[in-house]
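quick one before i forget lol
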Amino acid sequence: MFDTLRRQYIDLAQPRLGAEVVDATDDFFADKARLIAPAEPVFIPGKYDENGKWMDGWESRRKRTPGHDWCVVRLGVPGLIAGFEIDTRHFTGNYPPGSEIEVCRCDDRIPDAETEWSMVTPRLALNGDDRVYVPVNHNLPVTHVRLHIFPDGGVARLRVWGRVAKDWSAVDADVPIDLLAMENGGRGIIANDEHFGRVENLTAPGRGVDMGDGWETRRRREPGHDWAVLELGASGRIEEIVIDTAHFKGNYPDRCFIQAAASATGSPDEIAAMSKDWPVLLPEVKLQADHSHVFRDGLAELGPIRFVRLNIIPDGGVSRLRMVGKVTAS
């Protein structure tokens, strides 16, 4: 289940998209903000703070009154949710045995008492030091997620898997934008290797913060080259391509080229297989270390495209890929 969610969707609760934990009944033992931290949860033996054992997640105190605890996450962008990941790693004698999740659409940062919530999961049974993957069927865009835990305890991470629900009708079709940006619905589909960094990082906002915030493959010891396939948030005519190797110095690709297509269907593996024959959008170009490369001249006239394949020769790391163009009718 995890592989399916990760390869077909993005985590809409990523802080780099602007997501934040905005409300909770209680976070006495562990700050609610850590519930959506991007790093994998850790356990640090012997680490305590003024309230007790430091835990990497959200943890409420032992409830001595009726009711249960809950926490609200505001997504960075409105999205269509496909599933959730509830991670209780390192919470053993202090995990909640039950959970439910609600969603809503609200213009306010913190939903008020009048907000209408929709329950999208049944009561879920949780175990300690575990990860639960919950697919859901909810076809309306949402802005907030409320995680209920019964009755109290700690959760290390909550991931909200889905797709960005961008209102393209509000976008000026005469103004070029980054159609591959994560906040515009761009996503990584598949790469032949993600040993040091995931392909979805190519679409993330801003410049990479370090070498771990990009797509990086292992050192290639066999013939060939590495590649990644991505989908734009909307079809468009590309006018500018930016390939940023920020922080990649002794491990940047020597060269690259980009292929593109107007459409593609099937599983990630099927799309990857057909991408080998897509026409070339950007011919092979030389790359530099720790540099933002901007290409405007020499792009092939392919018309509107929706999918791209970045080929790096022979291997290495790329921080960001920007596909700047004007939106066209899908």
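fyi The first helix runs from residue 2 to 8.
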